[in-house]
Amino acid sequence: LVRDLLNLRSVAHDKNVPEYLPANIEISHSIKFSQSIIEIFRQTYNRFIHLILIYSTKIGVTLQNKDIRRYLGYIFIVNIVAILLFLLFGGFI
Q1: Of 5, 28, 29, 92, which has the fewest CB atoms closer than 10 Å, so is most exposed?
Q2: How far apart, in whole angstroms, are the C-alpha atoms of residue 51 and residue 7?
Q3: Per-residue pLDDT tens digits for 45-66
Q4: pTM of the full structure
């Protein structure tokens, strides 16, 4: 994850990562000599958010298995376990 996030092979704008924050800022709007700078923080932020979305989608597909009933079953089981843990250990904390 960190290696993917800090992979700065091309400092130019990566076409595969959508811009959540504009990273490519134009400083000169000339037709012949347009100049722009790329903010590394914004580019890293965009890649980080993009990786979070990709991994959360993969986790969602794995948990749901494209069936909402299975996902709701996981939520129900986690809630029951949380309630049992609270009832068992809630008075000691």
Answers
A1: 92
A2: 12
A3: 888 888 888 888 887 777 766 6
A4: 0.45
